[in-house]
């Protein structure tokens, strides 16, 4: 950690060395940081302890700068995150969050691309996450597993308050101030899965039945580290696709038997999702996400821990 912080002190101008807000850009959402002023990019390759992002739609740089109107808020944005499915250790996945904490970040805005499990969520909706289901955490893949390296951090971290109510409400205020239509935003629960495979229909049904609204392969590790470090957390999921969950299985036997009996049937073609589709939606809705985040920064109270 000391080596990373020292490298950053050498690469980032002094006035940007104490960001107030950290941002993590999800798949195809690096454009979020396009409006940073006085921005300085630091490649992950220059930072000891950082790995490389290998997923299309994720760059490998930290961007420092000022965001929002007026004087702006000093922020640090990860243009490209790390996922365990890339082969990165969980400790590497959350390392940038720990670095942000050491630089003084008190609020973190984590964005992601996600598939909709809730049939009421249409593609393009931004979901303000208020809870999560993390099967990997429950089954032993938790970034906080292991010896406590910093005794000042809690051993048993509560997560019932993981998603800041104040920050969530700010998003709705921001949308209201920007006259964003009501249906563009929703609230929901994020299911974290390890990926890199997308869900089968049965898995989608299972996660939906468990109460999840959207599903993705990231975010929860960063949320856990951020909460452990005492940050206020806001998560915004952009719905990039629907997880196709047919109400019932359409039997191939029925289909076959109808065919040989000469009865005309509708052949079922299973829909599939692709990362290209995910990235395309990120490009399409990137501006909405950017305006929302900028407005949240404008509304962030300056006189509190926030
Ligand atoms: O969560 P982010 O990084 O936004 O990306 C999402 O998009 C990718 C799959 O298309 C997965 O990495 C999934 O987690």
Automatic annotation (TrEMBL):
Keyword Magnesium: no
Keyword Cell division among record annotations: no
Residue numbers binding a purine D-ribonucleoside: 199, 241
Protein family membership: Belongs to the PNP/MTAP phosphorylase family.
EC number: 2.4.2.1
All copies of domain Nucleoside phosphorylase, residue ranges: 20-266
Top EC class for this record: transferase
Pathway(s): Purine metabolism; purine nucleoside salvage
Domain of life: Eukaryota
Keywords recorded for this protein, A-Z: Glycosyltransferase, Transferase
CDD domains recorded: PNP-EcPNPII_like (cd09009)
Protein name: Purine nucleoside phosphorylase
GO biological process, one term: nucleoside metabolic process
GO cellular component: cytoplasm
Residue intervals passing through the bilayer: none
Gene Ontology molecular function terms on file: purine-nucleoside phosphorylase activity
Stretch forming the signal peptide: none
Positions bound to phosphate: 27, 58, 81-83, 113, 218
Task of the protein: The purine nucleoside phosphorylases catalyze the phosphorolytic breakdown of the N-glycosidic bond in the beta-(deoxy)ribonucleoside molecules, with the formation of the corresponding free purine bases and pentose-1-phosphate.
Lineage, top ranks: Eukaryota, Fungi, Dikarya, Basidiomycota, Agaricomycotina
Pfam families: PNP_UDP_1
